[in-house]
Write a structure and sequence with these properties.
Elements (H helix, E strand, L loop, with lengths): L4 E5 L3 H13 L3 E5 L2 H10 L4 E5 L7 H11 L4 E6 L4 H9 L4 E4 L4 H13 L8 E3 L22 H14 L1 E8 L2 E6 L29 E3 L5 E4 L6 E6 L1 H17 L3 H8 L1 E6 L10 H4 L10 E3 L2
Parallel strand pairs: 1-2, 1-3, 3-4, 4-5, 6-10, 7-11, 11-12, 12-13
Antiparallel strand pairs: 7-8, 9-10
């Protein structure tokens, strides 16, 4: 990563050029782009510390760019600037890892202070050569689309699940010795959707108890990052566990961005299901987590 390197993306020349001049005078290395397409071209060629991004752009929107940056270089810190704030874009930006959201006209001192505070949270580069094996996910799982309700039959659901099994790893709830666990699904018949509670939650697939962070050989200065990017679908998640995923997203994608978590999350489809037979000991109702309208890619209701 280029320390103190900033990319300004805005379709208004006076905005991007004035911010560029201010930040250059403050000692930063600043590049500019007038469109999302131009920004992605620059990001493919070089790395940046911070991305200052307008939401409304010709062609690809700021949200589209955030999504691409999250897939290609999730360690870049993003700051949104816009003259048209909305609750929807604020929420989408946050989910995609933006650290702040400023309203135009941007006060240069405020932006500079925010960038400085952001750069102070970025650890210094290691003194050894690091080879990152990160690859963008083969499909985009984070695309925001309008909510739709539709009916599917048991056979149609079977076809969906079996289609996923052919393409990616599928995890779901399985019966085991009178209990229920999350595990790899090889056949639709293995999947249980009317369970009460599982022994362990599905969050273990995004935040495992242990993981390999890097690999190296003794006597050599080469360090290889070990980042899991296996495409995966988790099927049959109860609302309270979906809420737990949202909390993890807030911590490890926004507050303290973690490249390993972000990579796994970007490669994971979450499919929820209503809890038809809640455990008598469940306290989800008292916690307000017995239902949810957010945090999933698909939700099954009977």
């Amino acid at each position: 990563m280029q320390n103190n390197s900033i990319l300004i993306v805005d379709d208004e020349p006076i905005v991007r050029e004035s911010i560029q001049a201010w930040l250059t005078d403050a000692g930063y290395r600043v590049s500019i782009a007038e469109s999302g397409e131009k920004a992605l071209e620059l990001i493919k060629k070089q790395d940046f510390s911070v991305l200052v991004l307008d939401i409304r752009l010709p062609g690809q929107t700021g949200i589209d760019i955030l999504r691409e940056v999250k897939n290609q270089r999730p360690w870049i810190k993003s700051i949104i600037i816009t003259a048209y704030p909305s609750e929807q874009t604020t929420s989408e930006s946050k989910q995609l890892g933006a650290i702040d959201y400023l309203i135009k006209p941007v006060v240069p001192d405020e932006l500079e202070r925010l960038i400085g505070n952001t750069l102070n949270t970025i650890e210094k580069e290691p003194t050894v050569t690091t080879v990152t094996q990160f690859k963008p996910p083969p499909v985009s799982f984070g695309t925001v689309i309008p909510k739709k309700t539709f009916f599917i039959s048991q056979e149609e659901l079977k076809s969906i699940v079996e289609g996923l099994i052919k393409e990616i790893e599928v995890v779901g709830v399985k019966a085991k010795k009178g209990k229920y666990i999350y595990g790899k699904i090889d056949n639709f018949s293995d999947l249980v959707l009317d369970y009460d509670v599982t022994i362990l939650p599905p969050t273990k697939y995004l935040q495992p108890a242990k993981e390999v962070l890097f690999k190296y050989k003794v006597g050599k200065s080469r360090v290889e990052s070990a980042i899991e990017n296996t495409p995966r679908a988790i099927i049959g998640i109860h609302p309270y566990d979906i809420k737990a995923f949202e909390l993890l997203d807030d911590v490890f994608m926004t507050t303290i961005p973690d490249i390993n978590y972000i990579t796994r999350r970007s490669n994971t489809i979450l499919i929820g299901v209503d809890c038809l037979h809640p455990s008598p000991k469940s306290f989800s109702a008292s916690m307000g987590t017995q239902s949810t309208d957010t945090g999933f890619d698909l939700f099954l209701r009977k």
